[in-house]
Amino acid sequence: MSLFDDNKNKDKNLIVSAHEAWVGILYSCISADNQITDSETATLSRILNSKEQFIGTDIVLLYAKSYALRIEMGQLKYLSACCEWIQKEDKETIFALALEVLLADGKLEKEEKNIIEVLSNRLQIEAAMTSKIIEVIFLKNRGNIKGI
Description:
- By secondary structure, the protein is mainly α.
- Helix content is 66%, strand content 0%.
């Protein structure tokens, strides 16, 4: 293997399916602050299990790959790679679900705010729609018990 081959592989997207991308984005959200709470894990599992497209999918394997790739690639590069796999009609949905996961523990840390901004940009969601989605998710989660 030559040095050229090594550089070529660095640019290759290691995400190989939309399923991996969805789980990767949502997993990155719950791990953005480097602390994964039970409420975040439960919310992520509930969201994925409620989606028809994940019926019959081994989500545990997708979690494991997400964990490994996030460490290998770094948070922002990994998120960008995942966003490349999201279909246009799913971009606002995954963004809203990401916000729901981020707010599952009732707190929004600095790192999590950065994730919101990166996702909005990488998914190319218009600013007005981003604001609407954020407003709705905050309203939905108002009064949630913090940290559970």
